[in-house]
Structures are given as C-alpha cells and as structure tokens.
Amino acid sequence: MRTGLPTTHTALTVPEAIPAHPLPRNGRKTRRMTPTAITRKWHTTAEVAEMLGFGLSKTKMLVLTGEIRPVKIGRNRRILPAWVDEYVNRCAQDSTERWSA
After folding, report:
1. 3-state SS string over the chain?
2. More exposed terminus of the chain, fewer Cβ within 10 Å: N or C?
C-alpha cells in the first residue's frame, strides 16, 4: 500500500464566466460572425459508393472505367455531385430505353 497519496479526490472548481462587455476595451465595435453550413464540393469514392448503395470495389471499377467521372488530386480521386447525378440519370435513361423497346 502506498503512503502519502490522498485517498479521496477533491472536485475542481471552475470560475464563473465573466459577463461580456457591450464594447471591447479598445472602444471599437466588433463584427459578429454568422455561422454558415459548409457544403462539400466533391465526394470520395467511398462516399459515392454509400450514396449509390454499391460496394467500394464496384464504385472504384466504375471510376476506373470512366462510367463515373473523377478528378484526380494527388493519389486520391474525388467525384463532383453533378457527375454522380449524370451517372444515375444515364443509368435511368438506359433502363427506360430497354423497357420501352
């Protein structure tokens, strides 16, 4: 058994927040930043696979064969949302042509 160690822990107290002043100390008004939602400009191959309900290997194959157009950034490939929509529309158009013939 160790000696010299406290057997009970004491709770740490946090100081209360200091109320904000109407103006900062320099007397100038500050601009308030409005929160904005960041929308993704492109998706990873894994994200596209999840969106389409495909496996990752099938989605990678679609990208490598050019059926889904990618942008290559270094070692990574990214896909614009519009290109995913193009692929879906193309698939839907192909299926309607087959059924109408």
Report:
1. CCCCCCCCCCCCCCCCCCCCCCCCCCCCCCCCCCCCCCCCCCEEHHHHHHHHCCCHHHHHHHHHHCCCCCEEECCEEEECHHHHHHHHHHHHHHHHHHHHC
2. N
Block residue for tokens 């822990």: 9
Which residues neighbour 27 within 8 Å (Cβ) at sequence distance 6 or greater?
A: none
Look at the alpha carbons of 59, 63, 68, 73 in this order and tell me if their dihedral is positive or negative.
Answer: positive
pTM (2 d.p.): 0.59
